[in-house]
């Protein structure tokens, strides 16, 4: 839980590389490609190296975002973690479902939110503004929504092409989530495994 004087961190993560859509009945059902699985693991490694372990994950309901979340291995402990223990992966509830991934000795709550799949950026911003009061929130979603959201928060900070697959944008949020309108881009990274 964050207090009014503590800064917050918003991590935007575009899902890792998915397979071609041809054999799948709907876009929601597309899984990650082998490269995508490697890139998701690399994204998790980068987040741990940066000390960016979330207190809450909000994830699109699409298969490729769920598999990206699984690939982050938030339950892995880095060498700085002295607590041991390990969180588990919870259920894959549909709209608004909850699960859990462990990180740094605790279970990280996960909300699977279909609105993240649907976009657009302003609706996703509204979703963030109604988030619980946590210090670090990880949002796993899709383009163009995530790149547009990053640009809303800090115009022209990302490269023109926006977030690539497994692209990460880290924004510093200076007030409560409900007041989120602007947030400087603190870091940008594209994970490749």
UniProtKB/TrEMBL annotation:
InterPro entries: His_Pase_superF_clade-1, His_PPase_superfam
Superkingdom of the organism of origin: Bacteria
Gene3D superfamilies listed in its UniProt record: Phosphoglycerate mutase-like
CDD domains (alphabetical): HP_PGM_like
Region feature Disordered, mapped onto this chain: 75-106
UniProt biased composition (Gly residues): 87-102
Protein name (record): Histidine phosphatase family protein
Species annotation: Dactylosporangium maewongense
């Amino acid at each position: 839980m964050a207090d009014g004087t503590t800064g917050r961190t918003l991590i935007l993560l575009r899902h890792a590389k998915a397979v071609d859509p041809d054999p799948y009945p709907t876009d929601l059902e597309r899984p990650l490609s082998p490269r995508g699985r490697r890139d998701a693991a690399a994204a998790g490694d980068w987040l741990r190296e940066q000390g960016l372990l979330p207190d809450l994950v909000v994830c699109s309901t699409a298969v490729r975002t769920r598999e990206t979340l699984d690939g982050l291995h938030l339950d892995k402990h880095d060498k700085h973690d002295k607590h041991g223990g390990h969180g588990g992966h919870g259920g894959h509830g549909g709209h608004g479902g909850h699960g859990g991934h462990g990180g740094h000795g605790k279970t990280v709550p996960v909300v699977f939110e279909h609105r993240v799949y649907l976009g657009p950026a302003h609706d996703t911003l509204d979703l963030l503004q109604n988030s619980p009061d946590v210090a670090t929130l990880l949002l796993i979603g899709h383009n163009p929504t995530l790149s547009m959201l990053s640009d809303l928060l800090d115009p022209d900070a990302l490269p023109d092409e926006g977030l690539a697959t497994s692209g990460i944008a880290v924004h510093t949020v200076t007030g409560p989530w409900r007041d989120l309108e602007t947030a400087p881009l603190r870091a940008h990274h594209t994970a490749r495994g």
